[in-house]
Amino acid sequence: MKKRKVPHTFVIVFFIIVIAAVLTWIIPPGKYVSEQVDGETVMTFYYADQLPPAIGDSEFHAEPQTWQIFSAFYKGFVKQSNIIVFILIIGGAFWIMNKSKAIDMGIHSFLKFTKRLERSPLMQKIGVNNIVIILIMLLFSLFGSVFGMSEETIAFALIIIPLAVSMGYDSIVGLCMVYVAAHIGFSGAMLNPFTIGIAQGIAEIPLFTGIGYRAVCWAILTVVGIIFVLWYANKVKKNPQSSIMYEDDAYWRKSAEVKEEELERYTPRKAWWVFAFLTAVLIVFSVLYPMTTLKIGNSETTLPLLPIGTALFILLSIVTLRKTVHYFVLTLLFATVYFLVIGVLGYDWYIMEIASLFLVLGIASGLSVDKSASDIAKLFLEGMGDILSAAVIVGLAGGIVIILQDGGIIDTILYGLSKSMSNMGKIASAEIMYGIQTLINIVIPSGSAKAAITMPIMAPFSDLIGISRQATVVAFQFGDGFTNMITPTSGVLMAALGVARIPWEKWVRFIWKFILVLVVIGALLLIPTVTMELAGF
Q1: How far is CA 370 from CA 281, 367, 380, in A?
Q2: Residue range 106-119: average pLDDT?
Q3: Which residues pair with 103 in a beta bridge?
Q4: For residue 3, what pLDDT is reported?
Q5: pLDDT tens digit string along 277-309?
Q6: What DSSP string runs through 317-354?
Q7: CA pair distance 537, 532, nearest whole angstrom
Q8: Which of 56, 184, 360, 427 could be joined to 225 by an S-S link, Cβ 3.0–4.6 Å?
Q9: Got the DSSP string for 59-118?
Q10: Does the pLDDT of residue 386 top 90, yes or no?
């Protein structure tokens, strides 16, 4: 009997686009309109044929989608162009760095270090690999919770996945250590300005209040996530072929086959010139920006972070260049991560600045290992080509949202769901809010966009039924976070899966039960916000 083959991810996503187009023929188009009533701004829903003339003529154009299922591919590329360009630049930069064999050298050194630690009876009992997974997941969960790390995980996945495979796990474990950890933190965010900050601002409650209970939620969700990943990782470690990615991970296993004795230790003169140039640049920036103000929630801390980073870079570079250029390239990588965090927290960096930083990393890595400018350009193009499928799937997935938007049915879906909250008790109403946010997140994965659409509706409604607006914000942040890890409309998810070389359908098979557990935990954590007197609520 012939085994049924699962369709390619592109086919699945295109089929979802077709379904979305069919829905535009079934669901009537509509729009929420911001209006002033008794001096207050309220959101009023109108079906397309009931819209005020000015809005209907100039601001709202919706029609059932037919041939647009093909143009959605183009529009999806335009909509997701920032992420697509980010992926291509990251792919090219990391390809150059990988060709330097620095990652291979770093992984071998790390594994040798862990083997030395395993000589300790205590470490043997706990498991060094378990500690590594826990620490990495804690770090990225904290990043997701504090400053909303999301797109940045795409770059880190290219570092952690080879490490995970070398440790005897699979690409799924590597992606979970970075992407899933960050999105668990995103879901249980304490200070995330892109979700908590915007939602609380629209709900007209003091920014970042209620942080105490949200910190408890973050801790619970993070612990659950770590336990789940440890369980799966140990299962794969015992039987690698039990992984649904065993065959697909041949790419990562092949890249991890480089033996340490095959790595020649050397330091070209050009590496010293790269060090000198970068040092001069960093010194200039340290003089221009001697103090950096980190903004975390409502608190600000001013520190000489650029001078500190410059001093550390100089010290580490001198030490590593005297050993081998591989360690110097790793120093460039660590410096990139350091300045990335400073840029995001202190200077409001986003995708463009981060992509530029990694492009510098790629060029500096190529020059350090004595590659010519032409060789670096060729390697960069090879890297872009290698990761092109990840960029394409992001554009294709963006077409789903385009179809729903052009069909004008997103607000209609939200209106229909919100009507279901009528005549419910407090707990039931809060849970329905949570369910609505979860369902809406499938078609609008952007937290800030969803906050702008839903919070003006949910916040006033919570006053009517006697639920605190803070509880409404918690329902929003839970609903915003969990399904981001499974919906194909999320450009970040599709990009992360693309660089990890994990087909979306296999990811769904792996993650759906865990997402269900998180959704249930979120529902339980929402109850105290209604039944208990919590600080800030």
Answers
A1: 21, 5, 15
A2: 79
A3: none
A4: 54
A5: 999 999 999 999 999 998 776 678 899 999 999
A6: HHHHHTT-HHHHHHHHHHHHHHHHHHHHHHH---HHHH
A7: 9
A8: 184
A9: T------STHHHHHHHHHHHHTHHHHHHHHHHHHHHHHHHHTTHHHHHHHHHHHHHHHHT
A10: no
Report d(CA 107, CA 263) in Å as an integer.
12
Nearest-angstrom CA–CA distance, 194 and 208:
12
C-alpha 154/C-alpha 495 separation (Å) is 7
Distance CA 13, CA 20 (A): 11
Statement: residue 371 has pLDDT above 70: yes
Q: Which two tokens stand for residue 301?
A: 């801390």
Tokens 């659950």 locate to 224
Q: What is the distance between the alpha carbons of residues 206 and 470, in angstroms, rounded to a whole number?
A: 10
CB 536 within 8 A of CB 211: yes
In angstroms, the CA 25 to CA 27 distance is: 6
- Residue (of 494, 451, 466) closest to 195 by Cα position: 451
Single out the residue of 358, 232, 342, 331 nearest to residue 291, CA to CA: 342
> Considering only CA atoms, which of 89, 234, 258, 261 is closest in space to residue 164?
234
Segment 241-266 shows an average pLDDT of 81
Which amino acid, residue 335? Answer: A
SS3 466: coil
Higher pLDDT, 51 or 353: 353
- Residue pair 495/83 in contact (Cβ under 8 Å)? The answer is yes
pLDDT given at position 298: 67
Q: For residue 210, give every residue at least 6 positions away whose Cβ sits within 8 Å of its Cβ, in sequence order, or none.
A: 470, 473, 474, 534, 535, 536, 537
Position 143, amino acid = F
Task: Tell me the one-letter amino acid at 317.
Answer: S
Residue that has been written with the tokens 């801390």 in this structure: 301
- Residue 141 tokens read as 């969960």
Is residue 205 over pLDDT 70? yes
Overall pTM > 0.85: no
Give CA–CA dist 390/88, Å, rounded. Answer: 9
Q: Distance between CA 125 and CA 17 in Å, rounded?
A: 50
SS3 of residue 188 by DSSP: coil
User: Between these two residues, 75 and 147, which has the higher pLDDT value?
Assistant: 75
Pairing, β 30-37 against β 299-303: unpaired
> Please, which pLDDT band fits residue 55 given cuts at 50, 70 and 90?
low
**Per-residue model confidence (pLDDT) at position 221:** 96
